[in-house]
Specification:
This protein has helices at about 5-10, 10-30, 35-60, and strands at about 60-65, 70-75. It is α+β, with helices and mostly antiparallel strands. It has one domain: Helix Hairpins. A hairpin with a 5-residue loop joins strand 1 (about 60-65) and strand 2 (about 70-75). Helix 2 (about 10-30) runs antiparallel to helix 3. It is elongated and about 65 Å long. The mean pLDDT is about 85.
């Protein structure tokens, strides 16, 4: 799927808001066939962008490690993300 510079510049929250609006428009069925196809394609790009942003955020999350006495001693990446 080709990237859309406008979508790439969006925050996660803005992209989710537009994706929700797009889904609502498609669910109501008020768009023409061509409009529906365009909405679907944009929605797919928005979804991919949101998934990418979430994946990037997950990769930055770190787990605080504790010493034997329970004191914080550093961080390490969270496993399984």
């Amino acid at each position: 799927m080709t990237t859309d510079p406008e979508i790439e510049a969006m925050s996660f929250e803005d992209a989710m808001k537009e994706l929700e609006t797009t889904v609502t428009k498609l669910e109501h069925g008020e768009a023409t066939l061509e409009q529906s196809i365009a909405l679907y394609e944009r929605g797919a790009k928005l979804r991919a962008h949101c998934e990418r942003r979430l994946r990037e955020a997950e990769e930055r999350v770190e787990r605080i490690t504790l010493s034997a006495s329970g004191e914080p001693q550093g961080t390490r990446p969270v496993d399984g993300l």
